[in-house]
Amino acid sequence: MSEPQPLRLVIFDLDGTLIDSAGGIHSCILKSLKRHALPPVSFDFVRGGIGLGLAAAWQRIVPQADEEMIAALTNTYREIFLASRAAGEEQDPLFPGTKEALAALDQAGHLLGIATNKGRPGVHHALDLHNLDGLFVAIRSSHDGHPKPHPDAIHDILAKTGVEARHTVFVGDTETDMMTAENAGVAALGVAWGYHSPETLRRTGAKAIAQDFSELPALVGELIGS
């Protein structure tokens, strides 16, 4: 009798990997800066910092800010985000092919998780909006502990699912995601449609790059088995 196949796990980043949230994030940042009488920043600059977590993003945007100002900007951003969401203004779309690739991985028997530096309310709003709630067996947000690239997010999901690191791949679009995978000892799979270039992803540890979602199931199979 053959031995049972080990569980395999695919953990996803959220912003820039599953959902295209850059426009909404930039809008909320501009409103936050205006409320604090600070100068605006460009879309491209904000886009390049997505995935860092709010505190680190504000340090990048307002380098002269002290801890008190960072905390105030973070609170303002969250207030504006929640108000925009309640008004139905933030409708961050899924990237093309997201649902089909997730369904293919799920049908192949892979467990699915999310590790993101987005706050818990934003995560659940995005999943509810796109009818993805219930597909992921474990979700780790910025409210749950150390932000990426600290490996705790990945380690927590591994502990919850019982899957070994060698049977796990982390899919993301930024160097923070690739560093997180390396720090946690899991395979890093970059995506070309997100907020950092494929060259940056390869330089920071990506074992492979998916050009679109249709390539994702096969690449996952190559990295950790089908």
Shape: globular
Task: Tell me how many strands there are.
Answer: 6
Order of helices and strands: EHHHHHEHEHEHEHEH
By CATH, the architecture of the largest domain is named: 3-Layer(aba) Sandwich
Task: Report the CATH C-level class of the largest domain.
Answer: Alpha Beta
Which whole number gives the mean pLDDT? 93
Major sheet description: 6 strands, parallel
Oligomerization: single chain
Report strand order across the widest sheet: 3-2-1-4-5-6
Describe, in plain words, how this protein is organized in 3D:
It is a single chain. Helix content is 46%, strand content 11%. The protein has helices at residues 22-35, 43-49, 54-61, 67-86, 98-107, 120-129, 152-161, 175-184, 198-203, 216-224; strands at 9-12, 111-115, 138-140, 168-172, 187-191, 208-210. Strands 3-2-1-4-5-6 form a six-stranded parallel beta sheet, with helices on both faces. Strand 5, helix 9 and strand 6 (208-210) form a beta-alpha-beta unit. Helix 1 crosses helix 4 and helix 3 (54-61) crosses helix 4.
Features:
alpha/beta; Rossmann fold; DNA polymerase, domain 1; 6 strands
In a nutshell, what does this entry contain?
With 226 residues, the protein is α/β, with parallel strands linked by helices.
